[in-house]
Amino acid sequence: MGSFICEYTGELIEDKDAERRTGEDEYLFDIGEEDGFTIDAARKGNIGRFINHSCSPNLYAQDVLYDHEDSSIPHVMFFAVDNIPPLQELSYDYNYRIDQVIDSNGNIKKKYCYCGSNECTGRLY
Ligand SMILES: C[S@@+](CC[C@H](N)C(=O)[O-])C[C@H]1O[C@@H](n2cnc3c(N)ncnc32)[C@H](O)[C@@H]1O
């Protein structure tokens, strides 16, 4: 429990540029507490980009500052929620707000969740 798994790495972009990437938003990770920056792992990234969402996740994402003090661009690190047996899929909660993801035409985007958990809410967003 609490074991470090990996970082979520990618291209550091401003939120306004992330909003323009609505058609290619699969690997966006909104960072920091305020509006500001997003990590986009679509073009560059590491193994963190392959971790799916679950409504009963076994990982959590934690902001980590270690090489600078700027809380608007924290590193995002995944840690284990519990002991994870071998071959169990790793997942975290993407933390989207339902009906808050908007496409370039201003329409609400919906993505159905296939995590398979008993507690699944049915939607990522
Ligand atoms: C960061 S990627 C995760 C890795 C991706 N599945 C892949 O094969 O490269 C995020 C995308 O994976 C898909 N995804 C992740 N978790 C999902 C879930 N629980 N249900 C449905 N799609 C999911 C969605 O398309 C989402 O935008």
Secondary structure tally, helices: 1
CATH topology-level name: Beta-clip-like
- Spatial gap, N to C terminus: 28 Å
Shape: globular
Q: What percent strand?
A: 25-35%
> In the CATH hierarchy, what is the superfamily?
SET domain
Global mean pLDDT: 95
Radius of gyration: 15 Å
Bound molecule types:
S-adenosylmethionine
Derived structural class = mainly beta
Number of strands: 8
* Proportion in helices: under 10%
Major sheet details: 3 strands, antiparallel
Question: Which CATH first-tier class would you pick?
Answer: Mainly Beta
Number of domains: 1
Q: Give the low-pLDDT segments.
A: none
Domain SET: 1-95
GO molecular function: methyltransferase activity
Keywords: Methyltransferase, S-adenosyl-L-methionine, Transferase
Domain Post-SET: 109-125
Structure, briefly:
This protein has a single domain (4-92), classed as SET domain (Beta-clip-like, Beta Complex), CATH 2.170.270.10. The chain is 5% helix and 26% strand.
Protein described:
It contains one helix and eight strands, in the order ββαββββββ. The chain is mainly beta and 125 residues long. The mean pLDDT is 95. A three-stranded antiparallel β-sheet has the order 1-7-6, with no helix packed on it. The chain has a single domain (4-92), classed as Beta-clip-like (Beta Complex). Residues 26-27, 49-50, 52-54, 113-115, 124 line the site of S-adenosylmethionine (SAM).
